[in-house]
Each structure stands twice: as structure tokens, then as C-alpha cells.
Amino acid sequence: MNALDEAGFEALVAPYRSELQAHCYRVLGSLEDAEEAIQDTLLSAWQHYPDFEHRSSVRTWLYRIATNRCLDQLRAGRRRPMATPLSREPPEPSSSSEVAWLQPYPDDLLVEDPADAVAGRETIGLAYVRALQLLPPRQRVVLVLRDVLAFRAAEVAEMLEITEEAVTSALKRARATLRVEEAPEPPPPPRSAQERTVVQAWLDAFCLMDIPRLVELLTEDAWLRMPPLPFEYHGRAAAARFFTAMQTGARHDRILQTRANGQPAYSAYAQDRVTGLWHSRGLFVITVAGDKVHEVTRFEPALAAHFGLPRTLPE
């Protein structure tokens, strides 16, 4: 038996909390689901710590619990978030999203993510996380544990209570199936002058709803996405149709910037002409490719709270 008081347990798990939550997010694709999974993980770890025999490291033991809590969530059926209707009827979309539950992940939570060193920052990017969601659950967790976090096949087999051969087979199928959408050019370094220039040009045009300028700043094969709404618009012409159809005359004169999934992000606020208050119209995450914008993903305004941003600004 391993006796440990609450303070001792917190000290034991604290170094792993951030990376465990990022792991749950990669598997589940939803910040809110990941938060629920990490709470379930820590509760289970606290309850079962007396039975922990130290045959593996504490980190590996915690990953085993977290991975299985994620699989439990997937087997139980994912929550489908409620979507705020668009202000106007959108034009015919280019396609319909298969990942309605995708949510952004605050960069502030990534300060201790070991995947940075193992597989690179792109494994938390929206494109990668979205692609993961299209894999079957077991293949998804095996791929993340092996390729993103570099656990050995034997460790993954023990976590999932399967054979090493099953791990190898699942990994092979996952690698063959995974399709991560690639931008036409690599992004500039995070927080670099080049990135800031592109983002500021986009925000200037966005605030004015200068549609020709917005379209000019997009890559030829750019994407507009808006989970949990299923509509997706691909290419400059489709983006122009969407912006034109959605134009209301409202200016977004207030912008609060943040970062999500290693990418620039912002909350845009439009003023209510009756109350004078400024209401968030969504949290937007930008994928920059070279000196252009390759993808803009708009998320529900309520998610801004996870980034420390208000839903409403005073007059």
C-alpha cells in the first residue's frame, strides 16, 4: 500500500498535468472534453494510488489512466456542442465538416508539452488534431502515444492491455490512413515579424470587412471553417461568396488577440447599437502560410472564456 496525503498527491501529479491535458485534447479534439477527461484521470489516479505498484514510472501510469478515460468517453458517445446560428443564410458550402466537435486549445496550456521536442509543435495544430479525429479510436491513441509522445510499443501495449503485435498493426494502419492537410507554404516562425505582418493585415481588413482585401490575403486554396456548424468553404471564390452573403454592415472595431494551437487567434467584437455593448462574434484561429492566410476557423464565442477573453466589452 502507498500512503499519500492530498498535498503529496498533488505534488506527485502536478509536473504531468499540462502534458496529460494536451494528450487528452489530441485524442478527443475538444478542449472541454479534454478538461473533463483530465479531471476523471486525476480522480481515478487518487483513488487507485494505493494499488500503484511502481512497475512503471508515474508518468507512464498516468498516461495509461488518461488514455483509457479518453477511450471511455469515445465509447460512451461524444457530446455534440450547440451551435449559435449564423446571422444570415450562408451560401452553398464547398463541403460539410466531419469533425463538428473540434475546439481550439490555448497556447498558455502548452508550456510543458513534451511533444514539442519529440514530434514538433505541428502535432497540436488544428490541421493535425482534425485529421486525428477521423481515425478509429484505438488507432488514434496508438499513433499519438507512439509517434507524438514516443512511448515504446511495449509500454503502449501495457497501457491498452493488448499485444505488441496489435500495437504495431494499429500504428501501421493509422500512419497509412492519417491525412493531414498541408498548406502551400510553411508558416513563419511563431510570433515573428513576418507572422505579425500577415496577421495585422488580416485584422485590418477584417475590422473593415474589406472583402476584396480579405480575399487577396487568402491563398488560392484557402479554407473557411466554423465548427460546430458543418459549413466549409474552399478557395478564394467560395470565401468571397461567404463574406458577401454574411456582410451585415457591422464593423468589428475591437479585436483582442491571443494564440491557440500554436497559431495566431483573436476574438472579434461588434457593437450592439441599442445597448452600446460590444459582443464577441467568435474566436478565430488563423493558419498562416508564407505571407498569406491559408485557413480561418471560427469557433463559438463562449470558448473565448478559456483564453481569458470576455464575451462582452463595455461601451
Automatic annotation (TrEMBL):
Pfam families, per the entry:
Sigma70_r2, Sigma70_r4_2, SnoaL_2
Q: Where is the RNA polymerase sigma-70 region domain?
A: 12-79
User: Keywords on this record?
Assistant: Sigma factor, Transcription, Transcription regulation
Q: Which GO molecular function terms does the record list? A: DNA binding; sigma factor activity
Under SUPFAM superfamilies, the record lists: NTF2-like (SSF54427), Sigma2 domain of RNA polymerase sigma factors (SSF88946), Sigma3 and sigma4 domains of RNA polymerase sigma factors (SSF88659)
Look up the record and give one Gene Ontology term from the biological process aspect.
DNA-templated transcription initiation
Domain RNA polymerase sigma factor 70 region 4 type residue range list: 127-178
Highest taxon listed in the record's lineage: Bacteria
Question: Does this UniProt record's set of keywords contain Nucleus?
Answer: no
Looking at the record, the residues that make up the SnoaL-like domain are 199-293
Which InterPro entries would you find in this protein's record? ECF_Sigma-70_Domain (IPR052704), NTF2-like_dom_sf (IPR032710), RNA_pol_sigma-70_dom (IPR014284), RNA_pol_sigma-G_actinobac (IPR014305), RNA_pol_sigma70_r2 (IPR007627), RNA_pol_sigma70_r4_t2 (IPR013249), RNA_pol_sigma_r2 (IPR013325), RNA_pol_sigma_r3/r4-like (IPR013324)
Query: Looking at the record, which segments are called Disordered?
Result: 80-99
Q: How does it assemble?
A: Interacts transiently with the RNA polymerase catalytic core formed by RpoA, RpoB, RpoC and RpoZ (2 alpha, 1 beta, 1 beta' and 1 omega subunit) to form the RNA polymerase holoenzyme that can initiate transcription.
The UniProt family comment states: Belongs to the sigma-70 factor family. ECF subfamily.
- Please state what the protein is called: Sigma-70 family RNA polymerase sigma factor
